[in-house]
Specification:
This protein is 44% helix and 16% strand. The longest helix has 20 residues. It is an alpha/beta fold and 433 residues long. The protein has an eleven-stranded mixed beta sheet with strand order 4-3-5-15-14-6-7-13-10-12-11, with helices on both faces. Bound molecules: NADP nicotinamide-adenine-dinucleotide phosphate. NADP nicotinamide-adenine-dinucleotide phosphate binds next to loops.
Length: 433
């Protein structure tokens, strides 16, 4: 076992940098990757070939991906006795953009989840999850083609911040004692205080605004139709409700040239009547402005099923976003191919990742679907501004799945499918670019 990993990027590759909030990507950028555990090596090999194929096809020899392997998870533990070596964090910090396969979660010890650790250390405050259907993917709904959404899930706050007091613990007793002394009326609202576990839900203006700004900017830059704040503000006024209000205020303050909001509609209605408000909204949208609106979380979960066309970019807090991303991924049959990215748009740091786990029973069988990691790579290229290569990957996936050339997971749900191994699916994607 060597003591520390050596991270040596290709000699002729250069760092991605960020200047005044804009990424500056050289033609041969250094990109750290973690291949991942279990099925990770299989899906990483397939993904690497697809990404390189797309870049070669889009740019000839003018652009090249400068991979450098970094370590985390089981492979890191085996080689270096460390689940998450400092060198890995340093590499992601220094090179800004990278990609990772699924990691075994260490059992016991201090680290709850390596993914969460990486997100926290680099303050990757957006969990970005695009949800779209690929023609032919088996789906439980009738019109999966109507689902085309991009979810911005806040990644650092909310009930997920990790402030919890276990029932019966000393900390729990101490916390409840403080609450009882300082806020007796609130304390009385706890139905069974002696056996209650307690969780705290911080939602800040800064945390909300950086997420909201990222979602609004994405919608404007990518010509999307709307941004919806999804919240439960009718019940949790000072957290979820505040999230909604801060979102609207930010849209008005920083994006009034490019957006029109339901709040503006309400103001115009109050001043000039509903007809004037409708006319104002109609002309703003006709001029290409993005509509900014909001929806209560429970109703959203119904309407993404019944009226998916009304949702486009969705921005929401951590817990709502967790539920919504997986529910939507299932709607397009994409649980096995749903991609994800964790991004800090201010520092530029971003790690793109497969959203499924290591599926250890399939390790090294060249069997599973590489789609989740491949589409995460597609998101990475798009984030870098290499749109032409990203578009080719979508085209390749569309073509391969449309021709019913798929891995076992889709084949078992499709009639007339040709089942292929992981590596051959990558070939089919490359052939269809
Ligand atoms: P999992 O690895 O996601 O596997 C659950 C099931 O999902 C598999 O048995 C398989 O279903 C299907 N599946 C997963 N990946 C697939 C792929 N690429 N193609 C097709 N089907 C796929 O979840 P798990 O078994 O609960 O977790 C295993 C390990 O992964 C644990 O150590 C867990 O902590 C870790 N994990 C890591 C991450 C991450 O790094 N992001 C996320 C989740 C879990 P069938 O059996 O039906 O074929």
């Amino acid at each position: 076992m060597s003591a520390t990993p050596e991270i040596v990027p290709p000699a002729d590759a250069e760092k991605i940098e960020i200047h005044a909030g804009k990424l500056s990507v050289p033609d041969h950028p250094i990109l750290p990757f973690i291949e991942g555990d279990g099925t990770g090596p299989d899906i990483w090999r397939a993904t690497k070939r697809v990404l390189e194929g797309a870049v070669a096809k889009a740019y000839g020899g003018d652009r090249k991906l400068g991979w450098v392997e970094v370590y985390a998870g089981g492979k890191a533990f085996e080689k270096f006795g460390n689940w998450l070596p400092d060198e890995t964090i340093t590499a992601f910090r220094e090179y800004l953009v990278g990609i990772k396969g699924p990691l075994t979660t260490p059992v016991g010890g201090g680290i709850r989840s390596l993914n969460v650790a990486l997100r926290q250390i680099l303050d990757l405050y957006v969990c970005l999850r695009p949800v779209r259907w690929f023609k032919g993917v088996p789906s439980p709904v009738r019109e999966p083609q109507n689902v085309d959404m991009v979810i911005f899930r806040e990644n650092t706050e909310d009930i997920y911040a990790g402030i919890e007091f276990e029932r019966g613990s000393e900390a729990n007793k101490k916390f409840l004692g403080l609450l009882k002394d300082a806020f007796p009326a609130e304390y009385k609202k706890i139905r069974f205080p002696d056996s209650a576990g307690i969780g705290i839900k911080p939602v800040s203006q800064e945390g909300t605004e950086r997420l909201a700004r990222a979602a609004l900017r994405y919608a404007v830059e990518n010509g999307r139709k709307s941004v919806t704040w999804v919240h439960k503000g009718n019940i949790m006024k000072f957290t979820e409700g505040a999230f909604r209000n801060w979102g609207y205020e930010l849209a008005e303050r920083e994006f009034s040239d490019s957006t029109y909001s339901w709040e503006q509609w309400e103001k115009t209605k109050a001043a000039k009547g509903e007809e004037a408000a409708n006319a104002e909204q109609k002309s703003a949208l006709a001029a290409g402005k993005v509509l900014v609106k909001d929806a209560i979380a429970d109703i959203t979960l119904q309407q993404v099923l019944t009226r998916p066309k009304e949702f486009d970019v969705v921005a929401t807090m951590n817990l709502n976003g967790d539920y919504l991303s997986d529910a939507l991924a299932a709607q397009v049959g994409g649980i096995g191919i749903a991609p994800g990215g964790n991004i800090n748009y201010d520092s530029g740091h971003a790690i793109f990742e497969a959203t499924h786990g290591t599926a250890p029973k399939y390790a090294d069988l060249d069997k599973v679907n590489p789609g989740s990691l491949t589409l995460s790579g597609e998101m990475m290229l798009r984030y870098m501004g290499w749109t032409e290569a990203a578009d080719l990957i979508i085209q390749g996936m569309d073509g391969a799945i449309g021709d019913k050339i798929v891995t076992y997971d889709f084949a078992r749900l499709m009639e007339g499918a040709k089942e292929v191994p992981c590596s051959k699916f990558a070939d089919a994607v490359i052939d269809h670019m």
